[in-house]
Amino acid sequence: MASQKSKAGMVNRFLGHVLPGIIRPMHALWNEVIGFIFIVLAIWAAPSAWRNVRLVDGNSESFFKAAISVAFALLMAYFGISSFLRARKISRS
Questions:
Q1: Sign of the dihedral through C-alpha 74, 36, 90, 27
Q2: Which of 1, 38, 61, 63 has the fewest C-beta atoms under 10 angstroms from its C-beta?
Q3: Residue 19, pLDDT above cutoff 90
Q4: Do 81 and 35 form a contact (C-beta atoms < 8 A)?
């Protein structure tokens, strides 16, 4: 019985040292991948947003289309940048 307890203790100590070394880089990588996806979405939406802003002619429909497309592009850029900053914070801790 004593040898089983010592083996379980050794396994717990081993996992306690190894898992944080694996989980932290995986967490940072996850944030970098998500950040990349959001940045790609922002870049993909930017030409449409620019086109809609240029086509605003004073009526509410064109203004609404421009506002929604600009808001989407800016929101995706914000999420992407904040995700990269979060990944940097995780990797430095």
A1: positive
A2: 1
A3: no
A4: yes
| Rounded CA separation 70/84 (Å) | 21
DSSP string, 33-68: HHHHHHHHHHHHHHHHHHHHHHT--SSHHHHHHHHH
CA 5 to chain centre: 42
Distances in Å between the Cα of 80 and the Cα atoms of 23, 28, 38, 39 are: 21, 13, 5, 5
| 80 φ, ψ (degrees, to nearest 5) | -65, -50
